[in-house]
Design brief:
Length: 275
């Protein structure tokens, strides 16, 4: 039986120092209702529903193979859904291919193109690949903002993994989409580089006003970045618990409240994995 104890847990975490967000006041950007998908011999999603608030940061954590990446494939139209509804600001859509940007685990930069040209790919098509115009000016400004100034002409193989991911984030921003889907975008990086890029992800929400929906296996990462953490079950994937966090960022994982929440989530994931 799947029980929700998030209200009790979250109530125990509230203090005068860490205020709670007023969730009822937030506008829903994305609403998924009764989404289902079945492959031969495996039911991945069954009646899955999720609401993502505008300008929020929602993190999905769950056991390996539970269906998180398939869920993103359904959202982007990579694979068709079997049933259910996807609504964007109340309007039903078949998928979010035209309204969401998608950043996957690998940076997917073209190895023969310099970083700036990789970042310009969303606006280069049909324009002869020229580094001119408002698109190039925007990309250069983003390079300066994200610490890539001076590396515009380096090819991906000549820079670090963290710099490649920063370039991939610039490319994502060049799509000018309000919703950004992040499928473990920092998982291939070392711990120090990951931590340095957390601030960059927070910029997407705070400065660029993006709504973020992120898959991660790192509970600490979710606690440091997200406004809401959704704990998922084994396939067929459902929501086991939801945790709403303080709006105060940046956070420190050594905060006693976050440490208690981390232990609780890890216990939930361990219990789910043993089912």
């Amino acid at each position: 039986m799947i029980a929700s104890r998030s209200a009790d847990v979250f109530a125990a975490l509230q203090t005068g120092r860490i205020p709670c967000r007023h969730w009822r006041e937030v506008i829903a950007l994305l609403a998924v209702s009764e989404l289902s998908k079945k492959f031969p011999g495996l039911e991945v999603l069954s009646g899955f529903s999720l609401t993502v608030p505008r300008n929020g940061f929602t993190a999905l954590v769950g056991p390996s193979g539970c269906g998180k990446s398939t869920f993103f494939d359904l959202l982007t139209g990579v694979v068709p859904k079997d049933g259910g509804r996807i609504q964007w600001l109340g309007e039903a859509l078949d998928h979010l291919g035209g309204v969401a940007a998608y950043m996957q685990q690998k940076d997917l930069l073209l190895p023969w193109l310099p970083l700036l040209d990789n970042a310009l790919l969303p606006v280069r098509v049909g324009r002869g690949g020229k580094r001119q115009g408002a698109g190039a000016e925007k990309a250069l400004a983003l390079f300066r903002r994200l610490g890539l100034e001076g590396f515009e002409d380096y090819i991906p193989g000549k820079v670090s993994g963290g710099m490649r991911q920063r370039c991939a984030l610039v490319r994502t921003l060049m799509f000018e989409r309000e919703l950004v889907l992040l499928d473990e975008p920092l998982s291939a990086l070392d711990a120090i580089t990951r931590r340095s890029l957390h601030a960059v992800l927070l910029l997407l929400q705070s400065e660029f006003k993006k709504t973020l929906l992120m898959i991660t296996h790192d509970v600490e990462e979710a606690l440091l970045l997200a406004d809401e953490i959704v704990v998922l079950t084994q396939a067929p994937m459902r929501i086991r618990e939801r945790f709403r966090l303080s709006s105060i960022k940046p956070r420190k994982i050594t905060d006693p409240d976050l440490m208690r929440m981390k232990e609780h989530i890890l216990e939930e994931l361990q219990e789910e994995s043993s089912l």
